[in-house]
Structures are given as structure tokens and as C-alpha cells.
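User: Structure please.
Assistant: Input sequence and predicted structure:
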Amino acid sequence: MLHELSPQVLAALTRRFGSFDTAEDALQEALLAAATQWPEQGVPDNPRGWLITVASRRLTDQLRSDLARARRETAAAALLPPIELVAPAADEDLPSEADDTLTLLFLCCHPSLSPASQVALTLRAVGGLTTAQIAQAFFVPEATMAQRISRAKQSIKSAGGRFDMPPESERAERLGVVLHVLYLIFNEGYASTSGPELQRQDLTAEAIRISRDLHRLLPDQGEVSGLLALMLLTDARRAARTTPDGSLVPLAEQDRALWNAGSIREGVALITETLARARLGPYQLQAAIAAVHDEAVRPEDTDWRQIAALYELLAGVSPNPMVTLNQAVAVAMVDGPRAGLELLATLDADERMAGHHRLDAVRAHLLEMAGERDTARESYRRAARRTTSGPERRYLEGRADRLAGDR
């Protein structure tokens, strides 16, 4: 419950008192008080109001202390509405948190921040994760993550960021940033870029939870629906992606009986409804591709022609090297590995892919399909050296060793 209430309370406090930084400090004190008092005294009838009350009292005390120290009590009090110095009652009917939650998301994804800082601040403020949890997720010391989050807050303040919805002219672009941040969080959880584990369920679950909230607030936004559908359809395969010892299992070899049928039904229904009404976007197309994969009972039932056609559309809507990388696999499945390798070769001069292990890994797979075992083995080993993911490295080395043993 505290996890879900955190962003609502933080949004309400920030709107009321205007300072994101101090509001978050007050929220942490309120959460600590709840964690210690509620198990003994019971959960209050209005837990959100209780948290706002406790945090507001902390902020009010701090405001009074600051005014006293600065010897500007009288002047400041004359400038502030009396209500600002009074905490709300715990049972007071509070305004809907819907708009505030969305505003908080926009604030965390402020354009003055780097993508890494946007992700960290979103997980902290909207996801309710502690600094230690975020640091653990990205394999950095807690002190480093604390500094990153602190700098992010200061950057927003220095840039004049306010707790207000961006103007209509900026809203679409800022929503795109919000979606991209959620996409990054999910991807880091689904295929961790470093560390001993392939997946981080805490991150994927958090990305899905926040995306559900965003979809609830913006149900008519096609790309919001598309992103949620993509997450559901992709996460549905989670249980089959690794063996009990954590080793990676490629899509074609997964036990599809382990896939989450409920998530697949929900994701397929959502993307089907969205494609019928919304303007086409990249998240919707990616969700449609995931749906085609998930609806195949067996690997050989996969409609690769449809997937290749969807990737062609995606390449036109949102061209980027990762799209081309995946498109090459689909083309190879339809027209043969040579056709896929030709498309893959267009990425060799792309600086964004220079040294990226996935380019080597896909090339190795297609070379293996084409029967070029020695060249494929070299590509697998090169990909293994370049990846920072332990499970991926073991998988790639295993493929190379298998090809060496077949000689």
C-alpha cells in the first residue's frame, strides 16, 4: 500500500508546498512513521490523508523554523495564505490525485535531465523505490545514486521547473519522453545490461505498474496503450526465458506452456483495440509484433511474413539500428539468411552500433543459419567479449563452443 500511495502523496505535497526536494524528504519521514506505527495501531481509514497530514506537519514545522531563523516571520506570514501554514485533517476530502500523478511524471522527465537521471528520479518519486533499491538495480554504489538523484532535483530547480503541466505545445513531446523513460526502465528489467541476472523483475513490475497508472490517466493516447500492451506481451514470456540456474533460453527454444496466458490475453486485447482507433506509433507496432510471437502455439507456427511486414512499417515510422537489427532476423526467416545478412550489413557503418554485442550476436545467428559455422563461431565469441551481461555471455560462449564441437 505504501508503495502505491507514495507518488500520490508526493504529488499532493509538491503541489501544496511547491518544493519537490523538501516534499520528498517529508514524504520519507511520513512513510517511516507509517511503517512503524501502522503495524501496531492499524491502518487508518484514510491512509493517503494520514501520510499527507504527517508530511505536511513536517513541512509546516520546517517552514516556521526557516521563517524564524531568517527573522522574517511577520513579513512572510503576510505574504502566505493562512491555509499554507495549517496541515490538512487526516479525514479531509482531498482532490483527485490523477492530474497530480501525471504532472509528477512530467516533472521527473524534465528535459533538463539526462536519460539516466530521468530514469532514477522516476523510480524514486513515482515508483516509490528507495535510493538503495535503485542503486542496486543499476549496480552503482548507493552514494553515487543519491548524488545523481540530488543533482537531478537541483537541475530541475535551476531550470525553473515547476509543478505544473507543461503547456499544450510541449505536452506531446514531453509525453514521448515519459514513455521512453518507462520503456528504458522495463528494458533494463527484462534484459539487464550488466550483472549476474538476465532479468530484474522488480524493474519490469514497476514499469508495468506505472504504465498502468498512465494508461488509466490517458486512456485515449494510442502510444500509452501501445507501450503497456508491449510490456504485458513481452513480460508474459518471463518464466520461460531462463533455466533454473539462470541461463538464457532463446525464444525458439522456450517452453511456451510457461508463458503467462492472462498477460497475453490482456496485451492482445489492448493492442487490437488500440490499432483500430489510434494513430499508428512505434510502441503500437512493437506490441503488434510481440502479439504475433505470443499467439504462436509452437515456434514453427510463427507468422514471420506478418512480423517482417510490421518491422518494415516500424522502420518507416521510427528508423533506428535496433529496429534494423530485429528486422534482419525477420527477413532471414522469410527470405533466407543471406537476405538477413545483407540488411544487417547496412549497420556496419552506423556509429551507434560500433562495438555493440547485439550486432555480432545477430550476425552469428544468421551465419549459423547459412551454414558458415567458423565465421559464426568467431562472431559469437566477439559478441560474448562485448556484452556486460553474465547470462548473455554464457549463452554466447555456449553457442560458440557448440559450433566448435561440431567440427
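Confidence is low (pLDDT under 50) at residues 71-80, 83-88, 90-97.
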